[in-house]
Amino acid sequence: MCYGKCARCIGQSLVGLAILCIVANILLYFPNGETKYASEDHLSKFVWFFSGIIGGGLLIFLPAFVFIGLEQEDCCGCCGHDNCGKRCAMLSSVLASLIGIAGSGYCVIVAALGLAAGPLCLDSSNQWNYTFLDTEGQYLLDKSTWSQCIEPRHVVEWNVSLFSILLALGGVEFILCLIQVINGMLGGICGYCCTHHQVRTCVKKSNMTVKITTPRQNHNLPLFQCNLYILLVLICKTLY
Q1: pLDDT tens sequence across 92-131
Q2: DSSP sequence for 54-122
Q3: 46-67 pLDDT, tens digit each
Q4: Which positions, given as ranges, span the membrane (predicted)?
Q5: Residue 90's closest CA among 227, 219, 239, 222?
């Protein structure tokens, strides 16, 4: 199995999901396409947490581009093993996956809280408040109560739809990043497969290296020591 191709597929999927999260979060600021409620601060406080823009959007772009670039990494590595550099890159992608897990988790949590609290709206007593806050989310199952929100019109449907979309997208992002954690660990520990073109490139580079370093002593390390070297590199990256 080519772990790099799997990572690239996950990265491309995350880019699309991140864009959708940003769009859904932006739409929450304009109920029914109107801008006055945002300027008058008559929106749910959970809209201002930027869960889709930051959590499900910007924080997902970083690991997504890392995953996409994994397949383009140089196949020739260190420690005398051709694919050691690839394996180190795959293990490093686990750190990027953790950032994606944190961002998507934030998106899911805020979206769930936004659904549970309900929208900020003008009720029958002519007061702006969270009409469904005390229902603990039960209003979602009883659409007949949604008419209690007089203004903005259809704000309940607007909030429920968009927060549900953010919840679903964030959940998918979380799962994909979790899959890449497993994929990255397998690719780093079990090895990385290269394309035929990359293998030929590696052979050419290896031959050049042999010609240049012929007078020198061979310092190839066993595979176990190479794995130890990779682990030390990851620790250093984490600390610094």
Answers
A1: 889 999 999 999 999 999 999 999 999 999 998 899 999 9
A2: IIIIIHHHHHHHHHHHHTTS-S--STT-TTHHHHHHHHHHHHHHHHHHHHHHHHHHHHHHHHHH--EEE
A3: 999 999 999 999 999 999 999 9
A4: 12-31, 46-70, 91-117, 160-179
A5: 227
